[in-house]
Each structure stands twice: as structure tokens, then as C-alpha cells.
Specification:
Order of helices and strands of chain B: EEHEHEHHEH
Strand content of chain B: 25-35%
Strand order of the largest sheet of chain A: 1-10-9-6-7
Radius of gyration of chain B: 12 Å
Strand order of the largest sheet of chain B: 1-2-3-4-5
Strand content of chain A: 25-35%
Radius of gyration of chain A: 24 Å
Largest sheet of chain A: 5 strands, antiparallel
Number of helices of chain A: 9
Shape of chain A: elongated
Oligomer: heterodimer
Distance between the termini of chain B: 27 Å
Shape of chain B: globular
Structural class of chain A: alpha+beta
Chain lengths: 394, 110
């Protein structure tokens, strides 16, 4: 029995990032976390990792049950999340995929509650998904404490086919997240009183400008002072992440728009892009190229993605980054990867040339990067055009 | 998208202005068909005021070229800007359509 407890704990603890400060060369944020396992490990976990230069994925989870099976379930969930997050920027989509994987072949009917967020370190925008987990707190820079109560789906791993949602919010410089598991709020004192959220809030309130390390410490200290010599019943996990803002953040050059699935909307999108191109003095080559690409992809999505063009939605976002123009086109039509087909045979004569596939071929050739992702119920096309720093419109 | 049509000897020059894309391709197609219906089989399309062309525009040119082929007619194009040229290059349209740089070159020998 004893060695099994150790095995469980070893599995759990070996998977957690434990070096702090975790990103000493990143001035835009700070993160701190701790996990105090119960005697019989409860399958809690926390994780944080950079997806790319500008985004960090972070979260906590709590697996049902105890012991080695929970630790193994935790290990698998955590690994799947990290793997999926490497090229899926939507927490809802990540958890939708992870849920399907974990729910398949899950004979022991285990499940895990998860709160997962992705923070854009440049803009301060956070996208997050709460899958049955207790709501985290957001400590704003001016000291107020917000409880993020929204939920986006059931616990993960219970049933296949669940589609998760997500929410967005914008951080200001100095805002911090406090994530925790119910080992905190359900800690008991010797008289079997529960710690509850009210005490957690009380311990956090004075910390109006506490660092992540301080936030974690007061949370845990609050539990220890309450618990006294009662046995710790469940894993206690706390993660705090503070964003300090970014010098480039104020200079985000982008626009976004929502379109109906009508051909006439293409002209509206092109007109909006032309204004953007003019404002940021993009070269005519880049402007024309993007116009072609927008026409191809939007007409494709409109023509093929929706039955009878019934009220579908398309969202486009264009962002001018230092070295490239990044375009995202998302539609809620039928699953379709425009880049999945073969290139047309462009050596055929006029008579032999079939008509079709040409538009996508143009997009592939004219953009420097093209990608496709199915995120929950949307098709997402990602494009990038590298910019020549010397070519600007006069 | 505007179309200006002028006859030059027994050829017809059509000058398009704007873009040839999903929204404007049908209009371009109508204009080209009308010229052929009227009896002209030597068509020269002036691209000097065309900002960009998308695949729907290419399809119109292809359909027109195919139609003219059946009667021994000719389709010539001139005045492509850099991006239109790139689109022709990628799609291989340089090898199947007659592309010239200037109006004089396009009209020579018609």
C-alpha cells in the first residue's frame, strides 16, 4: 500500500513544472504554482507552457478518484492537452479533442475537471474554457477580485462527442489569475468545517498587489492555518499568473469583421481590407494578393460550406505584424479543409483544362504560409504573407 | 467594374476597369459574350486598369478562349500588372492565352 502511494505521488509530481521563476527572461508575465498532494494522491495537476513567442497556455485540473489510476489519468490528460495546444490556439477546441480521446476506452468512468486558458502576451487577451472546474479568481491591478463563474462544458473524459465553448476577456497590466482546485475550498478543520470560497476570498483580498508567489503562498497558508492538524483529504493545487503588459501591445495593428454568407459580403470584406492596407501603407502587390486570396477563400466558404447558404457566419481577422501580414478566416460551415485537394494540372491546353481547384492553388502559391484547423464547430484557415520591409507604398 | 468597348479595324478591344473576381466576373463574361454574339471573333482585352484577377475571372477568360477556339477566333490580352501577371504565371495561363505587353503588340497582325 505504501509503495503504491509513492508510485502515485511520483507519477504526479514528476509531471509538474516546478522551477521558479519559470521564465526569467520574459518580462511580460510571472507565474507561480504549487501542488501539495494528499496522502493518497488525488490526481490534481497544473501546467503552464509557451505555445509560441507570444502566447502562454496555463491551467489546472482535478481527476476524480485517488491513487495510481488517477495519477495515470492525470498524466495522460496533461500530455494530450500540451500536445494539442502546440498548434491549436482555442482552449475549447483543445478540450473538445482531449475529451474525445479520454472518453474513448474509459472503462473506469474516470473524469477530470479542467480550467484551461491561453493568454496572448502582446495584447493581454485571454481565451479560456471551464470544463466542470471550480471558478478561478481574477485580481485586477486596482485590487478588485472577480470570480470567473462562466462554464463551457462538462467534466472531461466522461462522454465522447461533447463540444466545448470558451470565453474571452482582456487583461490590463498588473492583472493576475488565481486558479485552484477544490482541495482548497473543501479542506476541513478538525471539526469538519469546510474552508469554502469565502475564506479563500478573505485571504486574497489584502493581496491587491501581491506577486504570483505571494498569491499562492497566502492561499496555501490560509488553508494550513484553518486545517490545523486535520488530515489533508485531497490534493491542494494553486496557480497564479500575472501579466504586466507589453510595449508592443498598444500598437496592435489589426481589424476583424463578421460576414454573412452572401457573395455580396466579399466586396465588403475587400473594401475593409483596402482601408486597412491604405492606413498602414501596404504595397500594392501585398494588397492585390490579399484581395485575390480573400475572394478565393470567401467565395469557397460561401459556395460550399453551407446548405442553401442558410445564415452562416464568417469571421475574418487581419493583423499586421512586424514581419508579416497574418490573416485568419473562420466559418461555421460543414467541416472542409480547402487545402486538402490536389493541385490542378496547369500544363494542360485550353481544351483539356478542367475548371476548378484553381482558386485554392492560387492561395497556396501566393501566400507564404497556409494552414487549416477544425476548431470545435468551425473551419479556421490561417494565412501569412511575409513582408519586405523596404517595399512600402509611397 | 466598367467595360469600355472599341472596335479597331475588324478586332474589338474591351478595356476592363477594377477587379475581375467573384462579384464582377459574370458582368465581364456577359460583355465578352455579347461582343462575340455581335459577330466579332478577334477580341483584345485591355488589362491596364485591372487591379487584380481571381480564379472566377480566369474562368471567364478560359471560357471565352474556348468559345473562340471553336470558330477559329482569337483572344489576346495586354497590360497586365505585376499581380495579375503572377496569377497568370501560377495558373499557367501564360501558356494558353496570348499575353502581350502593349496594345500595339496585341493588335499587330490581327
Amino acid at each position: 500500500m505504501e509503495s503504491e502511494l509513492n508510485i502515485g505521488r511520483d507519477i504526479q509530481m514528476s509531471m509538474l513544472p516546478m522551477e521558479f521563476p519559470a521564465f526569467p527572461n520574459r518580462a511580460e508575465f510571472d507565474v507561480h504554482a504549487t501542488l501539495h498532494p494528499a496522502r493518497e494522491v488525488g490526481g490534481d495537476f497544473y501546467d503552464f507552457f509557451l505555445i509560441d513567442e507570444d502566447r502562454i497556455c496555463f491551467g489546472v485540473g482535478d481527476v476524480s478518484g485517488k491513487g495510481v489510476p488517477s495519477a495515470l489519468f492525470m498524466a495522460m490528460t496533461k500530455t494530450l492537452i500540451k500536445s494539442r495546444a502546440s498548434n491549436d490556439g482555442s482552449p475549447a477546441s483543445i478540450l473538445t479533442h482531449v475529451n474525445d480521446e479520454m472518453a474513448a476506452n474509459n472503462e473506469s468512468a474516470m473524469f477530470v475537471t479542467i480550467w484551461l486558458g491561453i493568454l496572448d502576451l502582446v495584447s493581454g487577451r485571454v481565451v479560456y474554457c471551464n470544463a466542470g472546474h471550480n471558478p478561478p479568481y481574477l485580481r485586477r491591478a486596482h485590487g478588485s477580485l472577480e470570480r470567473l463563474a462562466d462554464r463551457h462544458g462538462p467534466v472531461v473524459g466522461a462522454m465522447e462527442g461533447m463540444v466545448y465553448g470558451e470565453s474571452e476577456l482582456d487583461l490590463g497590466p498588473g492583472d493576475a489569475f488565481l486558479l485552484y482546485t477544490d482541495g482548497v475550498t473543501e479542506a476541513m478543520d478538525p471539526d469538519r468545517n469546510l474552508y469554502e470560497e469565502s475564506r479563500l476570498v478573505k485571504s486574497l483580498e489584502p493581496q491587491d498587489d501581491g506577486t504570483p508567489e505571494e498569491l499562492v503562498r497566502v492561499t496555501v497558508d490560509g488553508v494550513w492555518e484553518f486545517q490545523l492538524d486535520a488530515e489533508q483529504a485531497d490534493d491542494i493545487t494553486v496557480l497564479a499568473l500575472e501579466w504586466f503588459g507589453s510595449p508592443e501591445g498598444d500598437q496592435r495593428r489589426s481589424f476583424a469583421m463578421a460576414l454573412h454568407t452572401e457573395v455580396s459580403e466579399i466586396a465588403r470584406a475587400v473594401a475593409a481590407f483596402e482601408e486597412f492596407a491604405s492606413e498602414y501603407e501596404l504595397s500594392s502587390t501585398v494588397r492585390r494578393t490579399v484581395n485575390v486570396v480573400l475572394d478565393e477563400l470567401l467565395s469557397n466558404a460561401i459556395a460550399y460550406g453551407f446548405e442553401d447558404n442558410e445564415g452562416g457566419h464568417i469571421e475574418i481577422e487581419v493583423e499586421l505584424k512586424p514581419d508579416r501580414l497574418a490573416i485568419t478566416i473562420a466559418d461555421d460551415g460543414k467541416p472542409f479543409n480547402p487545402f486538402g485537394a490536389q493541385a490542378p494540372n496547369t500544363s494542360l491546353s485550353v481544351e483539356d483544362r478542367p475548371i476548378g481547384g484553381l482558386g485554392i492553388h492560387l492561395v497556396r502559391q501566393m501566400m507564404d504560409e497556409v494552414g487549416y484547423l477544425r476548431q470545435t464547430d468551425r473551419n479556421v484557415v490561417l494565412l501569412a504573407k511575409m513582408l519586405d520591409p523596404t517595399a512600402k507604398e509611397g | 467594374m466598367e467595360v469600355a468597348i472599341r472596335p479597331i479595324e475588324d478586332a474589338t478591344v474591351l478595356a476592363f476597369t477594377g477587379s475581375l473576381d467573384t462579384n464582377t466576373a459574370p458582368q465581364a463574361h456577359e460583355a465578352l459574350d455579347a461582343v462575340i454574339d455581335d459577330g466579332s471573333h478577334k477580341l483584345v482585352v485591355d488589362f491596364s486598369s485591372v487591379d487584380y484577377i481571381a480564379s472566377s475571372g480566369l474562368r471567364v477568360l478560359l471560357a471565352t478562349a474556348k468559345r473562340l477556339n471553336t470558330t477559329g477566333g482569337v483572344l489576346r490580352i495586354f497590360g497586365l500588372n505585376e499581380t495579375v501577371d503572377e496569377v497568370f504565371e501560377i495558373s499557367g495561363f501564360h501558356t494558353i492565352l496570348n499575353v502581350f505587353t502593349t496594345e500595339d503588340e496585341a493588335l499587330a497582325g490581327l
